[in-house]
User: What shape does this take?
Amino acid sequence: MGLVEKGKVPKPLTWLLNYSRKYSLWMFQWGLACCAIEMGAALASPRYDMMRLGVIPFPASPRQADLLVVSGTVTDKMAPAVKRLYDQMPDPKYVISMGSCANCGGPYWDSYSVTKGIDQILPVDVYVPGCPPRPEALIEGIVLLQQRIQNEDLAERWRGEPIVVGG
Amino acid sequence: MTDAGDSREAEAQAEAGDSREAEAKAETELPPGAGSPEGDEIPIVEPEPDPEPEPLPEEAAKLLAQLEKELKDSIIESGHTFGDLVVRVAPEAWRKAAEVARDKLECDYLSFVSGIDWMPAPKVGGDDAGGDTSSPVQPTEITFGIAGSDGRFQVFARVQSTARHHGFTLKVDVDEDTFSVPSWVPVYPGADWHERETWEMFGIGFDGHPGMRHLYLPFEFEGHPLRKDYPLLSREIKPWPGLVDVEPMPGEEASEEGGGE
Amino acid sequence: MTVDFRSGLPDNAGAMLQKHLADARINVELETEGMVLNIGPQHPATHGTLRVVVKLDGERVVSADPVIGYMHRGYEKLTEFRTYPQITTLINRIDWLSSFANEVPFIHAAERLMGVQAPPRAEYIRTILTELSRISTFLLFLGEMGLQVGAITPAFYGFRDREHVLNLIEAATGGRFHPNFNRIGGLKVDLPSGWIDDCRRVMKKVFDSVDEFEELVVGNEIFEVRTRGVGVIPPGVGAAYGVSGSNIRASGVDWDLRRDGQPYLVYRDLDWKVWTHPDGDSFARYWVRMQETRESARMVVQLLDGLPAGPVMAKVPRIIKVPEGEVWVNTENPLGEMGYYLFSKGATGPFRCKIRSASFSNVSILPWLLKGVYVPDIITILASLYFILGDIDR
Assistant: This one.
C-alpha cells in the first residue's frame, strides 16, 4: 500500500487496521517438545481457550500464517527447517518464543546439538519464559503481542526493505 | 536346590575367581587405548584380587552356567550387580554370545546395545582455568566396572526374556586395532539402530551392519560426542551461570539432617 | 495439440504423434519407479519432529526410513556433567507426557547404589503419581489416536479429561508436568491436605471418561475398519526389535515389568491385572491402553486406601555422593520399558548414564512394519505405536 509506506494513513485508520490485525492472528504453531503440549492445551483445551482472543491455529500452509510460535527445543538439525518456514511467511509476521529452550537453550544450554535460543535465527517479538510455561503464560504472551500490534506504526514496519514473500 | 545346583554354583565361583585373578595380573600395564591429554600419567588402580570371590546369586549362577556350557573359553569374566548377571566375552564370540542368548537362554528381547568410554574426562576448562565448579569432579584414575575391561572402549548390551523373565548384561572390549566389534543385526534386527547410535556417539564400528549412517546428528557433524575427550563448548567458555551457593561446602555442615535437595 | 480429423491431419502430425508416443513410453517407464514421500518433520498433531521418508509404489509403501534426531538434545552427555539432583530435573523431559515416570528408575538406581531405601509412604506416593502420569498420558493417547484416524472430537475430550489429572499432579508436586518431585531418598514434601479425596473423585471421572472413549471411539465402525488388521506386529519380531510396553502386550506377550521385572515401588502389594490382546494390530494397541487406563485408576484407588503414614524422606547426606558401582534399573513406563544403566565412580554425578528409552525401540520397527501398507495406514500405525519424540531422541 503506497499510503502506508509514506506514512500518510490517518490515525483512526491505523488504529482500525491494527485492531483488526491483532484479533485475527493466524498462528503457525511450531510445536517441538514439551511446550507443544502446553500450547496444545492452550488451544485445544476448553479451559484455556486461546481462540477467544482471535488466535486460530492450523493454517493450511505457512504462506497464510501471521504468527509463528516456536515452542520447544530447537536443535541444530531442525533449525534450517524453522528458518525456511519463517521465510515463507508473508509480512507482517511475528514470532513468539515459548519456553526456555526456545528462549535461550534452556536446560540444554551446554548440549552439543541444541541451538541456544531461536533468536539466533529469527527475530523474536515476545519471549514467554517457563519450563513449560503454563497455558495462561502463553495467553499472556499473546496478549502482550496484541498490545504491541495495536501500538504499531505501520509505516515503520513497511518502510525500507521491500516485502519479500518467497524463499 | 539339590546337589546339582550346589556343584554348579561352586563351579561358577571357581571360574569367576580364577578369571578375576588373571584379570588383575593383566591390568598392571596401561591399556593401550587409554589415551588422554595427560598422556600416560593416569594411574591405573589395580583391583585387589578377592580372597573369596562373592558367590553369584542363584539365578545369575544358573544363567552363567548355561552360558559357559555354550561359550566355554570365550567368557573372560563375569560378575553381578545387585543380582543381575554381567558377562564379558571375547570380541570374536560377540555374535555367538547373542545367538546363545537368543536360542539357548530364550532371551528373545533386546533391550539395548551401547558403548562406554572408560577414560576419565579431562577437567572442564583446562588445568589453568578455574574450571567449571558446578560440574561433578570425577576421579582421575581409570577404574573399570564389573567384569573389568581390557581397554578404553567397551560395548555392552542387555537382553531379556519375555517368557522366563530373566535378563543379563553382556560386555565386550573393543578391539584396539580394528576398533570394531561384530554386529548383532543378523541375530537381533533391533540392534540396527542401537549400533548406529553407538557408532555415532563413540566411533565404534560394527562388522556386518547393513548401512552405517548417522542416526541422531546431522550428516555434517564432526566428532563423536560421547567420548570423554569431546568437550561441551558452552561449559568450556563459561561455567554454569546459575551457580547459587545454597549448598555449604562439604565439611561445614556435616551434621546436617537429611531432607531437601 | 488438437487434431481435427475432419479437416485432415496437419503436416507435422506424424512427427508430433511420434513425440507424444515417446513421452507416453517414458511416463509408463517412470510410473513404476515410485514416488518418495516425505512425512514430517513437522506434524500438525502432537507427534513431534519425526520424519519418515517413504518410497511409494502407487499407494503402497515399498520402503520406509524414519529419520530421527530432530529433538536430539544429548542427554547422555549432559548427565556426565551434572550432579544427581540436577539430572533429576533434566530426565523428566525425556518422555514429556508422563514425566514423573521417567524420574523413578533413575532415582531407584541411585538409591540402590547408595543403599538408601525410601520410606513406605514415599514409595506409595511415588506409585500413585506414576500411575497418575500413566493415566494422563493414556487419556491423551485415547483422544489423539482418534484425531489421527480422522475423528477430531476425541482429541478435545482427551485434553479436557487430562486436565483433571494434571490438576491433581500439580496440587501435589507444583508442576503440571515436569514435577521434579523425586529426591534421592524419598520425595520433596508430603501431600497437601484434601488431596486424597480429590484424587478419589478424579478417579471416578477417569472411569467415566474411559467409558466415554469406549463408546465414542471403539464403538465406531470407521475406527474399527481403519485400525483392525493394520500394522500387525508378530510377538517374536516385536521382541527382537525391542518393542515393549502396551505394544508388545497387544501382540499377546504377557510381560509387564511391574509384575515380572525387578521389584520396584509397591506393585507387588496390589491386586491388578495385566491386559493382553492376541491380535497385535492397531486396534489391539488402542484397546490394551484403554484397559490399562482403567486398571491404573483401580490401582490408584487401592493405593489411596492403603497409604501408610510416616515420613516421606529418608536420611540422606546433604551432598549426594553415590558410591562406585554400576546398576541397571528398568521400569514399566507408559511408553514401554525404560531403563537406566548407571555407572558411578563415587562422585557427585554419574560417570556414564545409559538411558534406555522405550520409543527408540518401538520406532525402530517402522522400517519393517511399514512395508506394504497403504499411505493412510502409515498415520494409523504411527499413532498406535505412541511414541514421544523426546523419548526417541533423548
User: Anything to note?
Assistant: Confidence is low (pLDDT under 50) at residues 163-167 of chain A. Residues 95 and 125 of chain A are 5 Å apart (CA to CA).
